[in-house]
Amino acid sequence: IFIEAIKVKEFENKKILKTMGKFEKNPKLKDHFEVVSESVIKTVFSFIPAGPIFDSFWNYRANLKQKRVIDFSESVKNALEEIGGNELHSSNFETEDFVDIMEAVYMRLMNTQSLYKLERFRNILVNQIIEPALETPLFMKYIQLLDQLDDAQIVLLDSFRYWEGQKINSIAVAYFGIEHNKYSGDHVMETLSQNLSRKITLAEAEYYMNELVSLGLIVNVSVSMPVVGKNSPHNNFQISIIGKSFLKFIEISEAN
Predict the structure, then answer these.
(1) Crossing angle between the packed helical segments 151-162 and 115-130, to the nearest 10 degrees
(2) Rounded distance, CA 58 to CA 140, Å?
(3) Vertex 149, ends 148 and 151: CA angle to 5°?
């Protein structure tokens, strides 16, 4: 079954590339994207269970996923319209790297409710359309990370980029300074919560940060060993090179 699935995917990718070869140079970026996205969407929809053998729940689920994909495609086309003024060659699309990245994004956005993450999935595709880059193993890791991380973790990581160079002993110290000991784990962090439009407690923020550390997106660069306790004065948490690279990958390129 697994081998057959691979064969199906390879066949679908060949069909997509063949379809993309039918159009030539065109200054309208959204038109190029529409041609490619229609082919990819057909492939993505083939993975959605639906039909008479499924009950109303599965049909609703399938329709919901299809709506997410269609709405997302429209948002990408709108973003390309806003950028405007760029000429695009069909060769930008006629690579397996682009098709693989596009398919990976579409497969994940079907299960994504977060508008915050959907915007960043959109950024990934827009960047790859405007400035195509050869796929690296990290590209797929970054797409997987975006799917895996909570919105709060992306906001926290962005905060660590802003704090880069400052000594960060803990999340509590970063947000509350010398008064950090006054706050318990169930204290709602207003600044972080406002950015996310939902309540985030100090305990949740510490958990999210610890996971970012385990993923290598944040590193403890303390020179004192051993470092004792999460609030040790010897701790110095900083965004890693990979953390900065990940944020750059999911943001609209300044060149665009």
Answers:
(1) 60
(2) 29
(3) 135
